[in-house]
């Protein structure tokens, strides 16, 4: 599971927000940090966004097959989505509870509220395609949301 946020001291704040098994965050890229975690309580993402006063997006993975996305910005923009809908059906996950169009629209609004520039096509693709490892779809989603990627810092 992974969290992306523009917060400083991300791991400690994640633990305070109810995340467990938090690993040290990767170096910041254009102010955005990434950290991995094992579990989060139901309100963890919203609590973390309030604590850090910064946008947060988290993906919780089910066996690298399905990703549950939740994002919140301090101004209240919230959304959730599902990564790899085809595999989710195989797991018996009710995909109808994660409609794509509202998720794309909300993701674009969240991105704008976070001061990012999203790519609607890339966001939609990440929310509708399948991959061997859902972590790859999560990386595609982060890029589509306009979150600076680690490889952008190289050079």
From TrEMBL:
It comes from the Bacteria. This is Uncharacterized protein. The lineage of its organism: Bacteria, Bacillati, Actinomycetota, Actinomycetes, Kitasatosporales.
């Amino acid at each position: 599971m992974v969290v992306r946020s523009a917060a400083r001291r991300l791991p400690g704040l994640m633990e305070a927000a109810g995340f467990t098994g938090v690993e040290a965050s990767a170096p910041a890229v254009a102010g955005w940090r990434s950290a991995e975690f094992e579990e989060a309580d139901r309100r963890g993402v919203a609590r973390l966004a309030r604590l850090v006063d910064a946008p947060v997006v988290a993906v919780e993975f089910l066996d690298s097959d399905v990703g549950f996305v939740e994002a919140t910005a301090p101004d209240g923009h919230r959304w959730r989505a599902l990564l790899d809908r085809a595999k989710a059906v195989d797991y018996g996950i009710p995909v109808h509870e994660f409609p794509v169009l509202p998720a794309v629209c909300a993701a674009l609004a969240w991105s704008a509220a976070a001061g990012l520039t999203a790519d609607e096509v890339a966001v939609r693709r990440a929310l509708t395609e399948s991959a061997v490892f859902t972590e790859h779809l999560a990386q595609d989603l982060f890029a589509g949301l306009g979150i600076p990627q680690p490889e952008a810092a190289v050079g």
